[in-house]
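Translate structure to sequence.
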């Protein structure tokens, strides 16, 4: 494999999710509805956690960061898809492709590590409640946050560094609706076997380790809760079961895509769509709406906003009458 970058391709043509106009329209509507309904919900979660002094526990700290990561992750793919649906020619520049790929893996890797940190937080809270305040102190939470950001950055920069060393001299038709490692590597004008192995080791190993770590954490929690007689047993079981289902839905497509050689399969695009667009938008909502304290705080913030808006309208009407 050549070590120098002899790229002559300046742009990639995205072939999209499907050639069917009806399916494209349906996907466009789904993305638009998700962005309109759920993305504002992410920002409301962030606002709620930051503005309510009662939500200072590490769990809420992690929920706010999860909402931020998911909203940012969704913006790397979903808006571009909406633009491409309205365009006759879906083209992305070489630099734009590399940038999208970087942020996709930077935010995705960070989110996987954040879910592991949240599982660890729940493990300490349920299985070691007497040590919770000592272990999960503000310094530990900030350290975990720093680790996940650094972990996502290192994971992503390795992906980008390996791709930048590949020569691209055509063809430039990317069989996907966004730039990702498996499809981009296949367009390189050289033997990519070694690079594919390194990519599988990087992305696949990170995804698999996060997945196994999450399953192990929740398995221990479920065993601990099922053997106890506490009042919150049913609630904890319900919450943990829901989280395990979400973990399977989120990490299942990622494991399918990144832990095997980069051979094109018919299910790849569908898995990529759910992995990059649908599940990140649903994730904070599912994690958050099962938390009673956050829901109460969100309602209070919304009611305060409505009341202040109404008072502002009344003052404006009185001012106009004067």
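Result:
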């Amino acid at each position: 494999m050549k070590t120098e970058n002899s790229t002559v391709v300046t742009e990639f043509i995205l072939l999209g999710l499907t050639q069917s106009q009806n399916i494209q329209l349906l996907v466009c509507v789904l993305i638009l509805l998700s962005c309109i309904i759920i993305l504002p919900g992410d920002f409301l979660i962030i606002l709620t956690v930051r503005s309510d002094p009662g939500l200072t526990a590490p769990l809420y700290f992690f929920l706010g960061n999860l909402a931020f990561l998911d909203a940012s992750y969704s913006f790397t793919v979903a808006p571009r898809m909406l633009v491409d649906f309205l365009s006759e020619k879906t083209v992305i520049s070489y630099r734009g492709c590399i940038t999208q790929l970087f942020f996709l893996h930077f935010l995705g890797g960070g989110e996987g590590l954040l879910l592991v940190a949240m599982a660890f937080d729940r493990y300490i809270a349920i299985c070691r409640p007497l040590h919770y305040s000592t272990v999960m102190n503000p310094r530990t939470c900030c350290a975990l946050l720093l680790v996940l950001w650094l972990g996502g950055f290192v994971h992503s920069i390795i992906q980008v560094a390996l791709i930048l060393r590949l020569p691209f001299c055509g063809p430039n038709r990317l069989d996907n609706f966004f730039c990702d490692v498996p499809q981009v590597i296949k367009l390189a004008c050289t033997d990519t076997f070694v690079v594919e192995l390194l990519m599988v080791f990087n992305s696949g190993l990170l995804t698999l380790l996060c997945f196994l770590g999450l399953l192990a954490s929740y398995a221990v929690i479920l065993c601990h809760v099922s053997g106890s007689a506490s009042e919150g047993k049913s609630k904890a079981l319900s919450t943990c079961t829901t989280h395990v289902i979400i973990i399977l839905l989120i990490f299942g497509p990622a494991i399918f895509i990144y832990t095997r050689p980069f051979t094109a399969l018919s299910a790849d695009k569908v898995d990529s769509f759910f992995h990059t667009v649908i599940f990140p938008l649903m994730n904070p909502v599912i994690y958050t709406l099962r938390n009673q304290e956050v829901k109460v705080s969100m309602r209070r913030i919304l009611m305060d906003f409505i009341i202040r808006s109404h008072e502002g309208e009344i003052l404006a009407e009185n001012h106009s009458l004067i």
